[in-house]
Sequence to fold (201 residues):
Amino acid sequence: MSLRKIGILLSGRGSNFEAIQRAIAAGTLDAEIAVVISNREAAPGIETARRFGLKTVVMPSQGVPREQFDRELVRVLNEHQVDLVCLAGYMRLLSGYFVQAFPQRILNIHPSLLPSFPGLDAQHQALDYGVKYTGCTVHFVDEHLDNGPIVLQAVVPVEDNDTYETLSARILAQEHQIYSKAIGIVLRGEYRIEGRRVICV
Ligand code: GRF
Fold:
């Protein structure tokens, strides 16, 4: 039987979370969002989740030691029987404890073609470097930043007249496509991992 229950972690706008929810509502992704957790009270994404009538939990993280916070996070995710954790603009590093609690069961979306431009402000990094192509990446999460095996990527050309805003918007449109697709592949178990390579089967 395939896995179904997703837990979303977010800290901000939540447009990727919304795209996932829309794919579920449209029937293109067979899954259920069991809980949406924000580490910031003011995250617009958590308000959207409330509007959708989803189960929401706000856990302010400021000043809380990383592992102590992550232990509580794991408890809440397990309480909601989450099969797959999806980071959707979650602005906090995960502890080894958290990663080990969900082995190959955590996905992240990053706005560049990893391993180029990890970390913050990937779109600025791409513009500053002068690459002609950038994009976005859905990858499994391990204990290193923006590092785990890559499930899907989408390429976005950089136009000569691009600004941070125009480039980010075109990348975001691709993020919204590939995140749901990647979640479907992982939930249905249609992949195997060979070294760093995720082979879709
Ligand atoms: C996205 O660009 C995502 O790639 C990055 O954080 C941003 C989150 O945007 N990890 P949103 O909150 O999903 O709108």
